[in-house]
């Protein structure tokens, strides 16, 4: 009686004994299931990539983009930064923006300096 041995991806060794037709059918089924598992894992990976691409970019990323465009060549107040982000289609309240800007200063992405404003001195953010 013919015999066959199959080694799986996990390292399991499967010994098969039977007729030539039975062994052929079992091997074909095993290979088919391996192809299905590979296709399924590729599909799941592609889906995860699409989900990551669709995710909205963080507000800090948009501020860094403004920096790259030269927006912070001169000191900017929070209200100016908020308006620039609104022009890009992201409405971020100044109260939320202050925390983001502090993080960027702490990470040394931006610097801050005291500037004269309408209501006295306030912080301005610059490269």
Indicate the topology.
Layout: E1 3-7, E2 13-17, H1 20-54, H2 59-68, H3 78-87, H4 94-106, E3 111-117, E4 120-126
Antiparallel strand pairs: 1-2, 3-4
Helix pairs in contact: 3-4
Structure summarized in a few sentences:
With 127 residues, the protein is an alpha+beta fold. 54% of the residues lie in helices and 19% in strands. The chain has helices spanning 20-54, 59-68, 78-87, 94-106; strands spanning 3-7, 13-17, 111-117, 120-126.
Number of domains: 2
Q: Mean pLDDT across all residues, rounded?
A: 85
Kindly report the spatial arrangement of strands forming the biggest sheet: 1-2
**DSSP strand (E) fraction?**
15-25%
Q: Give the uncertain stretches in residue-range form.
A: none
Give the helix tally.
4
CATH-scheme architecture of the largest domain: Orthogonal Bundle
Roughly how many Å apart are the termini?
Answer: 79 Å
Strand count: 4
**Shape verdict:** rod-shaped
Structural class: alpha+beta
Query: Percent range for helical residues?
Result: 40-55%
Largest sheet, strands/sense/barrel: 2 strands, antiparallel
Order of helices and strands: EEHHHHEE
- The CATH topology of the largest domain turns out to be Arc Repressor Mutant, subunit A
At the first level of CATH, the class of the largest domain is: Mainly Alpha
């Amino acid at each position: 009686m013919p015999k066959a041995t199959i080694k799986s991806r996990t390292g399991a060794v499967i010994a098969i004994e039977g007729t030539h037709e039975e062994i052929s059918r079992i091997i074909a089924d095993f290979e088919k299931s391996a192809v299905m598992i590979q296709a399924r894992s590729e599909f799941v990976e592609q889906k995860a990539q699409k989900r990551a691409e669709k995710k909205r970019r963080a507000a800090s990323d948009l501020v860094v983009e403004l920096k790259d465009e030269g927006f912070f060549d001169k000191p900017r107040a929070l209200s100016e930064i908020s308006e620039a982000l609104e022009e890009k289609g992201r409405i971020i309240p100044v109260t939320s923006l202050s925390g983001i800007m502090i993080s960027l200063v702490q990470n040394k992405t931006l610097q801050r300096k005291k500037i004269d404003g309408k209501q006295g001195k306030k912080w301005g953010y610059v490269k």
